[in-house]
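Record Fas apoptotic inhibitory molecule 1, 182 aa.
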Amino acid sequence: LEKMTDLVAVWEVALSDGIHKIEFEHGTTSGKRVVYVDGKEEIRKEWMFKLVGKETFTVGAAKTRAAINIDAVSGFAYEYTLEINGKSLKKHMENRSKTTNTWVLSLGGTDYRVVLEKDTMDVWCNGQKLETAGEFVEDGTETHFSVGDHSCYIKAVSSGKRKEGIIHTLIVDDREIPEAVE
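=>
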């Protein structure tokens, strides 16, 4: 494998199916553009005469739309910005913190990353969408699933405050797991 000599940008993007690494090579003398997602080459273009522009591709199991914008800043300096679903990476991450909950835990020596998509109530674990069973309980709902041989559920209860909305808590083997900050 050739050395990535023209590597100009690396981003880490948290999606429901995991954290993805996006790398971008831009040869400003050759016009080469290469996009890698999780180490796998997604786009390769040689001899591009236009050095500015946009490369679009998808990331992750849900084929999330992504784009790298290449802009000239001054002379031969370039700026590279990553967009996820048409939003800047920063906006994407801010939006994600409102639409998902993420928990990171270790069970029997294996690390798990559990993500709840609040709008669909889909539950992901280490890149796989899980089979879940929803159930109404006295003070809210419980979404049941298993991770390995552990029984888990996400409890959703109203905070009683309009601004806070619903509070989601992950319970694994009757133990509450603290939410992770990504």
